Here is the input.
Amino acid sequence: MRLSTTIASRPRLRQSLIVTASAVLLGLLATFMATAFVPTSAHAAAAACTTDTATGCIQGTINDSDREPASGVDVTATNAAGDEQTATTDDTGRWSIAVTEAGSYTVTVDQDTLPDGQFLVNADNAERTVNVNLGATASALFALTAEEGATSGEAAATSFNWDRFAQQFASGIRLGLLLALAAIGLSLIYGTTGLSSFSHGEQVTLGGLLAYSFTSIGVPLILAAVLSTVICAATGYLQDLAIWKPLRKRRLSLTQLMIVTIGLSIALQYAFQYFYGAGTVRIDRANPTTVDFLGVTLTVQSYVAMAISVVVLVGTGLFLLKTRTGRATRAVSDNPALAAASGIDVDRIIRLVWTLAAGLAGLSGVMLGLVLNGVNWMTGLQILLLIFAAVTLGGLGTAFGALVGSLIIGIIVELTNIWLPGDFKYATALLILILILVFRPQGIFGRKERVG
Here is the structure.
């Protein structure tokens, strides 16, 4: 009567895991298919700087005021001894400089080589200082404007046009899909345990760094992505086995458990920094190839990452809706006590959720590493606020709410970049989070009588 009538029985659990794993593998297969059919010329991008134990890289991309690649621009990096190295942007606007000594470098742009009618934003303060470690990548960013002498604020105020709006909107959908991979897992963890896990961002970081580690030793990218996702899922399983289940049995309060997740987050961040350094590392060393579609320019990696995200998100939705274990997961999320009284093995469902959430977060890290052309020890921490904002906006504990919230957050954050420069756009997520908590704390799909 006990296990045979349990909704989340072992055979059903194995069946659901197979369904979920198949969805993930199908999505990753899209990577191979997409890259296999890219024209040969697309793969013939200029060779990028490759990091190793004796080489560090300084790199960046320069686009004009219309977001088109600015080719033929000379960029110079100068070390403390005054030694100079110069690179020229290619047809995609990318440049990279290899250095063999760690330290501080001053990066400048030769403004005489800029495209006609283009000027450097804040031209009076055109130097960028970057710290480079061997075996890591550092970035130097330069923005162009069509108005001579414009500051960053003035350039942002005058740079709006509908083409750029479409470009940022597409980038927002891309960001939203990648956020959704991590946000759904975080939402399921909250729904089944009531715990807000602050260490969830580190699962994202772990996925990206593992993919970098595998590709560094010659593992093909598609296999590296699969292995990274599987290992991250395994860490979720082990976390619940070694940490969360014993603490639940000790009946620790949610506040105490949340403090544990904060401590785990900090420990993992410094472990990543110890093993991988403070610099940014690249999963794919080749220069990204861009594709124009309906007036929007994105890299091939971006299109592939979006396709994989859609496939995996659809697979996760089917798992939650169509399988008995998925329905049991939703039942535990709604009311754990009632689910247990109905014969559902709540502990087994919670362990499945930790496993699934960690795997999805790891896959998100791999995709972010490809889209952003790099990952570092703080990648997960930098997007954790966006993930929490997405989960809160959609409704705590609701997987489909997390998906909708992620898309909304991603689009708003990227559209904000039209007016706000650089990482200031992430402040928008904090503002949205505050407004949600003030006016509708239960989120879009949450119920008023029960948050989540």
